[in-house]
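Re: that backbone. Tokens:
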């Protein structure tokens, strides 16, 4: 899978090179590249922002460097093109699975956003990671890339890892434990120690249902509506 992250601050993307995603990049399962949009600006000072027409606070990223950057990287429109914005469709586990089937170009906004023409001309889908505002799209891009890449072949050590995660079956994940069996008076539940896999699976489902009904009842509501 190939992912290109378009940004004014490529150094903010460097942390993706570590841990599980970094290992997948090293073994060739993933190619993730941070692309500096400023390189494509025709302004002699490499300026990529300007004041908005009609007034308003802050600056907008200009359309020219964004358009030229994406045209250079994806002239035949082979990749799925994403813009990260609070006004986009809410990102979730289902969307992450779907995006994992594509090469991606991810545009990170900054300042007050981008010229709408960049979205109209270049972008396939606008995505939001939540109902809050960040100073730029780089952190949101890292969230999306990390979630998506977990569904790519060769990234996780075990296929079961994402199949048993929260949201995989519409429920929150059950509690998990490892050694020691007792810590400061808190014990691992006996059912996890008896080797009866049927009982363990039953307990895990019960715990998932309890946690979901307590902390995310909206997920249960959504499953009934589906």
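Recovered sequence:
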């Amino acid at each position: 899978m190939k992912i290109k992250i378009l940004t004014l601050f490529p150094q903010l993307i460097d942390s993706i090179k570590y841990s599980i995603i970094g290992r997948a990049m090293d073994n060739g399962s993933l190619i993730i590249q941070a692309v500096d949009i400023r390189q494509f600006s025709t302004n002699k000072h490499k300026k990529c922002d300007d004041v908005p027409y009609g007034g308003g606070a802050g600056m907008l990223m200009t359309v020219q460097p964004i358009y030229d950057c994406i045209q250079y990287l994806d002239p035949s429109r082979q990749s799925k093109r994403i813009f990260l914005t609070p006004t986009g469709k809410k990102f979730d586990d289902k969307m992450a699975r779907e995006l994992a089937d594509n090469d991606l170009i991810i545009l990170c906004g900054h300042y007050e956003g981008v010229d709408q023409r960049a979205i109209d001309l270049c972008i396939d889908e606008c995505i939001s990671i939540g109902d809050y505002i960040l100073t730029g799209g780089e952190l949101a891009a890292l969230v999306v890339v990390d979630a998506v890449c977990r569904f790519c072949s060769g990234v996780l050590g075990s296929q079961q890892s994402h199949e048993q995660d929260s949201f995989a079956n519409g429920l929150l994940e059950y509690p998990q434990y490892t050694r020691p069996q007792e810590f400061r008076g808190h014990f691992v539940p006996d059912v996890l120690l008896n080797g009866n896999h049927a009982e363990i699976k039953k307990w895990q489902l019960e715990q998932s249902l309890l946690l979901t009904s307590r902390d995310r009842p909206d997920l249960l509501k959504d499953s009934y509506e589906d």
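The chain has eight helices and nine strands. The two ends are 31 Å apart (CA to CA).
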